[in-house]
Write a structure and sequence with these properties.
Keywords: Membrane, Transmembrane, Transmembrane helix, Transport. One of its GO terms (molecular function) is sucrose:proton symporter activity. Residues 445-486 are annotated as: Disordered. This is Major facilitator superfamily domain-containing protein. It is found in: Membrane. The chain is an all-alpha fold. The protein has a single domain (21-28, 40-445, 518-633), classed as MFS general substrate transporter like domains (Growth Hormone, Chain: A), CATH 1.20.1250.20. The protein is 67% helix and 2% strand. It is built from 26 helices and five strands. The protein has a three-stranded antiparallel beta sheet with strand order 4-1-5, with no helix packed on it. It has a two-stranded antiparallel ribbon with strand order 2-3. Helix 11 (267-300) packs antiparallel against helix 12. The two termini are 38 Å apart. The model is unreliable at 1-15, 347-355, 428-523 and 563-601 (pLDDT under 50).
């Protein structure tokens, strides 16, 4: 249940002797090709947004305790460590006549839709097998919801990874930046759409979809996921794999390659990984507990519900307020993704080599190094988490979460771009493996797209004819090496903008450098981009396990028997006047809780987790500030 996690795989383009038929191409007018290729990510992000805003309160409304709810969220990191490597191996070796990615995308998207609908309709589905209101009904509903969470996370991680891989497979190296930029736009728009729709009172406007907010949301999200991927599958044509390389790497070899690379990482890449470790510690709770946190604040100042109907209405209000905060955060993140790249300084050495259009003087004065901007975002995030000490209103908490949208935009972009630059600027000799010269290569990458000959070949590659080419090997010509040289990387679907330079780096290093040079030094960083991304992913995923365990302990201490939300939820499809649970006991428990001053004035367990995340963000800020100073000196 996290967009953080992904394990990347890179094929050795120089030694791969796989044979293919046809050319990858995108149908339609030029202006619609990149949107058609990346629109599937919009559907993915809408579904992610629904789960992020509704999973926590819905599980609690079913009667699941907070500590067990935290354990359920292990689905996210587990899916990143297990599903994406497996789906990468399966897709890379698929010989389907429909392509390597699209068949698995269709299967994964269908499974995700089924799991999403099961999540929203857990109670009525459980009612088919048990008596509504009985303990067995409640237990079965909880188990179905938990099962659906795991199925959603596992399948949506597969869909997102395959969407990214399809982008890498389809576009030539110089078009990867534009493709990833469109992917970032689709993801940002998906976040805004998902959280905005979650804020609307859908049962009032769409009563035919269901009488509950969550039911309407899961139907809309499922339809969007299917429609967007149908559009991509129709518009994108893949090459067909007809024979695999006998020396192709398997999962075991990839894991060994990651370990081998881990022991020899250059200093700067190690620093980036350390920063990401503490950053992930800070971010994971915010992504999934924001709705519950704001819902608690709303209920503390709301009058106690007098009956079941009042409890349901209060639940709906609390959840929508949490979704509204996430919506504002998504808007800020979208704006930051569009605006902040203009405020990043380019190295003078690269600027001298690449003719650039003159900029306005004021823009040059406010530009900063990317690592400095990353450090600033971590500092702002730490301040936001510290502000939970003094914020006790829904409005204040909403403002804090909105500000974190700026930080989230930078976190998705900066570390991966710095990682790509480290790989690009690393010398190709084995003797220099322990040191790395870092420079800002972004301008150099942009200048590559100005090469007329390369543009002509890549345009032909992008809009190639429908006639299938004869079977060929990657090593038959330099043109085919350029066509196939970029790695098939199962990249991270939540680190959205930053994959751009990674994809370009491996491909361009394979194309620009003489083949005999890379073969002489197969351990160069450019040939290990996939392994480095896998290592980087480990530093992102492992903290999520730690946060889950810590959250369970904190919930067990401060909320041993409390459930934040009432026994009913806007996702509950059964009329409120029916015997859903032991309503008398529930109402007595609710009223006892509201009448107990110690409950309302006690420590907010989620706020405590946020504050600990702020400490981790402060550590990440210090490390990132040191990294920025080091990069400025190079």
């Amino acid at each position: 249940m996290t967009g953080f996690s992904a394990l990347s795989f890179a094929e050795d383009s120089l030694n791969d002797e796989s044979r293919w038929i046809g050319r990858a191409r995108i149908l339609g007018p030029p202006l619609t090709r990149l949107p058609a290729l990346t629109v599937g990510l919009l559907g993915v992000q809408v579904l992610w947004s629904v789960e992020m805003s509704y999973a926590s309160p819905y599980l609690l409304s079913l009667g699941l305790s907070k500590q067990l709810m935290a354990v359920v969220f292990l689905a996210g990191p587990l899916s990143g460590l297990i599903v994406q490597p497996l789906i990468g191996v399966l897709a890379d070796n698929s010989k389907s006549r429909f392509g390597r990615r699209r068949p698995l995308i269709g299967v994964s998207a269908a499974l995700c839709c089924v799991a999403t609908l099961l999540f929203g309709y857990a109670r009525p589905f459980a009612g088919l097998f048990t008596t509504p209101g009985s303990p067995s009904h409640d237990s079965l509903a909880i188990w179905l919801a938990v099962l659906s969470i795991y199925c959603i996370d596992f399948s949506i991680n597969a869909v997102g990874a395959l969407d990214r891989a399809l982008l890498v497979d389809t576009l030539p190296p110089s078009d990867q930046p534009s493709g990833n930029a469109w992917a970032a736009r689709m993801l940002a728009i998906g976040s805004v759409v998902g959280f905005f729709v979650g804020e609307i009172d859908l049962p009032q406007w769409l009563p035919f979809l269901g009488r509950a907010q969550l039911q309407d949301l899961v139907v809309i999200a499922s339809l969007l996921l299917i429609f967007t991927h149908l559009l991509t599958s129709v518009c994108v044509k893949e090459r067909i794999l007809v024979a695999t390389d006998s020396r192709a790497k398997g999962l075991k070899n990839e894991i060994y390659n990651i370990w081998n690379t881990l022991t020899r990482l250059p200093r700067v890449i190690r620093q980036i990984c350390y920063i990401q470790f503490f950053s992930s510690l800070a971010w994971f709770p915010v992504l999934f507990y924001t709705t519950v946190y704001i819902g608690e604040l709303h209920k503390q100042v709301s009058p106690p519900p007098e009956d079941d109907l009042s409890a349901v209405i209060l639940d709906e209000e609390a959840t929508r307020l949490g979704a509204r905060a996430l919506f504002y955060s998504a808007l800020v993140s979208l704006a930051a993704n569009i605006i902040m790249p203009f405020f990043i300084v380019r190295a003078k050495e690269v600027a001298m080599l690449t003719p650039l259009q003159p900029r306005k003087p004021w823009l040059e004065r406010v530009q900063v190094h990317l690592a400095t901007l990353w450090a600033f975002s971590l500092f702002v995030f730490a301040l936001c988490m510290a502000a939970t000490f003094v914020v006790s209103s829904v409005g204040g908490a909403t403002f804090i979460m909105s500000v974190t949208g700026f930080c989230w935009a930078i976190v998705q972009w900066a570390p991966f771009t710095l990682l790509a630059e480290a790989i690009l600027s690393h010398p190709a000799t084995d003797e220099e493996m322990t040191s790395i010269y870092l420079e800002d290569t972004r301008s150099n990458l942009r200048s590559r797209t100005d090469d007329d000959g390369q543009d002509a070949d890549e345009t032909q590659h992008l809009v190639g004819s429908d006639l299938e080419d004869p079977t060929y090997s990657r090593s038959t010509s330099l043109e085919q090496e350029e066509d196939d040289g970029y790695p098939r990387i199962m990249v991270n679907h939540e680190a959205r903008v930053s994959q751009t330079d990674i994809n370009v780096s491996s491909a361009q290093m394979s194309h620009d450098a003489p083949p005999h040079r890379l073969k002489k030094n197969p351990n160069g960083l450019s040939s290990q981009a996939g392994a480095i991304l896998g290592i980087h992913n480990i530093f992102i995923v492992v903290p999520q396990f730690l946060v889950t365990g810590l959250s369970s302990i904190i919930f067990a201490i401060f909320d041993p028997q409390k459930s934040v939300l009432h026994s009913h939820h806007p996702g509950n499809p059964i009329p409120v006047d029916s015997t859903i649970t032991t309503s008398g006991d529930v109402m007595r428990q609710i009223l006892d809780r509201d009448e107990d001053p110690s409950v309302n004035t006690g420590p907010n367990s989620i706020a405590i987790i946020f504050r600990l995340g702020g400490v981790a963000a402060a550590v990440a800020f210090v490390l990132c500030w040191r990294l920025a100073r080091e990069l400025k000196r190079t």
